[in-house]
Amino acid sequence: LHERLPLQTTAVAGAFARWGVPRALEPAGALPQAAWRLDDDPEPGEWEIAIDVERLNVDSASFRQLREAAAGDAERVAAAIAAIVAERGKLHNPVTDSGGMLVGRVRAVGAALAASGEAPAPGLRIATLASLSLTPLRLDAVRRMDLEHGQVEVEASAILFASSPWAAMPDDIEEPIALAAFDVAGAPSRAGSLLRRGDTVLLVGGGGTAGLLTLHEARRRVGEEGAVVVSDASEAAIADVDATGLADAAVCADATRPLEHYDAVMAAMGGEADVAVNLVNVGGSELGTILLTRPDGTVLFFSTATSFNAAALGAEGAGRPATLIIGNGHMPDRGATALRALRESAELRAVFRRRYVGER
Amino acid sequence: LHERLPLQTTAVAGAFARWGVPRALEPAGALPQAAWRLDDDPEPGEWEIAIDVERLNVDSASFRQLREAAAGDAERVAAAIAAIVAERGKLHNPVTDSGGMLVGRVRAVGAALAASGEAPAPGLRIATLASLSLTPLRLDAVRRMDLEHGQVEVEASAILFASSPWAAMPDDIEEPIALAAFDVAGAPSRAGSLLRRGDTVLLVGGGGTAGLLTLHEARRRVGEEGAVVVSDASEAAIADVDATGLADAAVCADATRPLEHYDAVMAAMGGEADVAVNLVNVGGSELGTILLTRPDGTVLFFSTATSFNAAALGAEGAGRPATLIIGNGHMPDRGATALRALRESAELRAVFRRRYVGER
C-alpha cells in the first residue's frame, strides 16, 4: 500500500488496510464504496475475513431495477447479477448505486485481525451489515432466485474488512425476521442510548420494522414513569403498534401534513417530547417532528428520506435549538438490542411473524 | 384561527400563532415558509413584532438569479423584487426557493408577546435571523441597490413571529462584519456546546467565516491542554487561520479527497479527533470527516452541502458508531458567541475587516 500511495505514516497505512483500501483496483487508493472495481481474490489479507456465501439479499431498489430490466425473467436477472460482479468485483448496481447484504459462514480470518481478538471465529454463520456495494465478491454459481423478495442463493466467496459491521445469525429467530431486524438494528440501539427513565418519547412513523423495535427499547428505557407515543399514517401499522401493548398512545396521522399531525399528536401526548425519533419513509416531516420536540430536546432522524437542509433550515426558521441527530445505523452491539426486543416481547414477535414469515 | 382550522386544543392554536400560521393566506393553515402567499398587514398580531425595515440582505443564490434575469440592470432587479413581494407578501424567490435577512428597527410588539418578556423593545435595531422566505413584508419603496453584495435599502414594514430568531445589532462592530457573523452564528455556539477542556477538535474546511469564529470558541473551550486543528483546501484561508494564532495546526488539504486529506490531517493531529466540525461548502467530505473522528466521538455537520445519506451510510459501511449531528443554526444566544470572538481576538477581527470591509 505504501508503494501504491505515498503515505506519511505506517499508522495511516494500517487504517487504510482495515477499511479495505488495498482492494480498490479502479481507481487504486480509493475507499471500496467509491471504487468502480474491487479485487475479488478470495484469499483474505491481514485485516480481512473470507466468507463462504450462502445467500445474497439484494437491496430492494437494486433488485427492482434488475427485475424490470430483465422483464421478470429469473435467468436474465441471474445473468445480470453475474455480469455486475464479474465487472466490478462487487454487487454494486451501477444504476441504483446500491447493494444489499449477505448471509454466509466465516471461512478464514487474516492473521493481524485474528490476533486483535475482534474477528468472528471460522465456522460462525453471520450476516454482513456493510453494503454489498463495498464488499469484494467472487460469484461461482447462482443456485436459486426468489424473484419476490430479492434473495439469491449462490456459491460465492466474499471478503469483509476489519471495519465492516457484521452480526452472528441467531438460531432461535426465524431467518427472514432476523435479517429484517439487522437491517434496521441501529435504530433501537441508538435511540435507546439517548433515553432516560421518565422521558416522553415520540416515534414518528413508528409503525414500521424500525419503529416497532425502537418502541420496545424505548419502553424499557423510559420505564412506566415515562411515556412512549407512536404516530403512523397507516391504520394497519397502528393496529400492530396497539397489538404490542408497548405504547402509551398510538395516533393515526400523516407526518407530512405537519400541522394536522401536530394537533393530533399533541392531543395524545399532552406536551412536547423530550426525544423524538423520525422513521417516516418519505420526505417532508422534518420540521413537523422538530416542532413536537422540546426546544432543548433531541430529534433522531432514522429515515434515508430525511433532507439535511429541511431539518437544519426548518429548525432555524422556527427558532428551535433542539439537537438534531443523523441516524447512523452502526452501533457496536451487532444487532443485540434488536434481537432482544424480539425475544422479550411475544406480541412483537407475533407481528414480525405475520409480516415476514406469512403467519396468520 | 380556531375557525379557519378545526383544532383540538387552544394550546395548539397558541403554538400556531407563535409560528405565524395565521399569516398564511395561500393555503390557509400552512407554516409561513411553506405558504405561497402571506398576509403583509403591517399591524402586529398578539404574538408578532412589527419592524421598520432599513435594508434587505438578499440571499446570494436568490440575488444572483434576480440579477441575471434582469441582465444586471438595477431598476429591473428592484422591479422584480417588488413584484415578488407584492405577489407573495414576502421576498421568497420562487426560482431559488430562498430568501435572505433584513436589518431594521422594532416599531411595535403585540400584547401577548410583550407580556411574555421575550420580545425586543420598540426602538431596538435588530437583524432578523429567520429567512425572508417566511417573513411577511410590505415594500413601499426601493431606495438604493448594491448590485455587488445583494443589499437593498428600502422603505418597508416586516413582521416577525414570536418564534422567529433575531439579534440586536452591535454598535462596536462594523455592520457588514456583524451581519456575516450572524449569518453563521450557530456554528461557534453549537460547536462550543459540544466541547470540553482537553478535547482534540478538528475543523474541516475551517478557514471560512463560520470556521474562523468556531476556531476562536473551540480554543476557549478546550484550553491550552486541548488541541485545535484546521484543514482547508484554500492556501489563502490557511494563511488567515495562521494569522489568528488560535490553531495548533493548519493543514492545506482538500477534504473531498478523503484519503489524501486523512493522511495530511493525521500527520498534523497525531490521532483521531474527539469532535470534528465539517464546514466544507461542497459535498463529498462526509465520510472523510467521520474517519478522522474517534469511534465514540462526535461529528457536527455545518454545511448546507452535507448529504444526510452520505454521512449515515458512510459511517455504517465503515463501521463507525460516532454521533453525527445536523448543524441546526438556531442557538438561544442570539449571536453572542460569534460577536464575542470578534471582540476578544484583534487578529480575528483584522481578518474579518480584510474580508468584509476591504481593509488592507
Tell me what the structure shows.
The structure is a homodimer of 360-residue chains. Chain A has 360 residues and is α/β, with parallel strands linked by helices. Chain A is 36% helix and 24% strand. The first copy, chain A, has 13 helices and 14 strands. The first copy, chain A, has helices at 10-19, 60-69, 74-88, 111-116, 175-183, 186-194, 209-222, 235-244, 258-269, 286-291, 308-317, 336-344, 346-356; strands spanning 24-26, 37-38, 48-58, 100-109, 125-128, 137-146, 151-161, 166-168, 200-204, 227-232, 249-252, 273-278, 293-301, 323-326. The first copy, chain A, has a six-stranded antiparallel sheet. In chain A, strands 11-10-9-12-13-14 form a six-stranded parallel sheet, with helices on both faces. The first copy, chain A, has a two-stranded antiparallel sheet with strand order 1-2. The longest helix of chain A has 15 residues, at 74-88. The first copy, chain A, starts with 9 loop residues before the first helix and ends with a helix. The model of chain A has no long low-confidence stretch (mean pLDDT 94). Chains A and B meet through helix 1, helix 9, helix 11 and strand 14 of A and helix 1, helix 9, helix 11 and strand 14 of B. Strand 14 (323-326) of chain A pairs antiparallel with strand 14 (323-326) of chain B, so a sheet runs across the interface.
